[in-house]
Amino acid sequence: xxxxxxxxxxxxIIKRGMQIFPGDPPFEHRKVSSLAGGDVAEVSAFEICxxxxxxxxxxxxFIAGQPTLESLPPDNFILPALLTDNGxxxxxxxxxxxxxxxxxxxxxxxxxxNSRCGVLTGxxxxxxxxxxxxxxxxxxxxLDLALVGMDCFCVDRFGNDDYxxxxxxxSAGILILEGIGLAxxxxxxxxxxxxxxxxxxxxxxxxRAVLLR
Length: 213
Fold this sequence. Notes:
It is a single chain. The chain is of the alpha/beta class and 213 residues long. 13% of the residues lie in helices and 28% in strands. It has helices spanning 94-100, 113-116, 134-142, 164-171; strands spanning 7-9, 28-33, 43-47, 55-57, 78-85, 91-92, 107-111, 131-132, 147-150, 175-178, 188-196, 204-212. A seven-stranded mixed barrel has the order 4-10-9-7-5-11-12. Strands 2-3 form a two-stranded antiparallel sheet. Helix 4 links the parallel strand 9 (147-150) and strand 10 (175-178). Helix 1 runs parallel beside helix 3 (134-142) and helix 3 packs parallel to helix 4 (164-171). The longest helix is centred in the middle third of the chain and has 9 residues, at 134-142. The chain starts with 6 loop residues before the first strand and ends with a strand.
């Protein structure tokens, strides 16, 4: 069994009132029964969008006829990963991907100023987040990456309703991990574990994403 000396949680907390991408339904958490109310057990019910918080997008998100979550084996979600830093740029361009040294079959996680500025954890959604350009997405496709992750709720520029970066990545079978908190992680190679719920017919799911090494 593999042994890891470092486990970094790169998931953000899901809670009432958290940021959501505009147009998505908010997260709701209600008690079905409670010990404080005299019930025999605590039981919760959630109402949650598949794209809430730290979440994984599958090709079925934008491409008809693609496999949904219950069809994919778990080894799709446990991958060798490279974390790279984008510096101060306002977008992630091709050079960041080229300079990263990412290899075929790896997950490439990209830390941007989104992490340092608290884009994911602030009280209001910021539309000026750092995003992945379509040209950079094309380089990820050429490198045959397995997954691309970013510290924003959407890899495409806000307001670009064609979602070109999503479509380039997903059409190549590259999974997208969005909403990861990378402020406390240093660049380097890790093992990424980001297992989604096994939901029939789902194109995405929140995950508890961790980096191991």
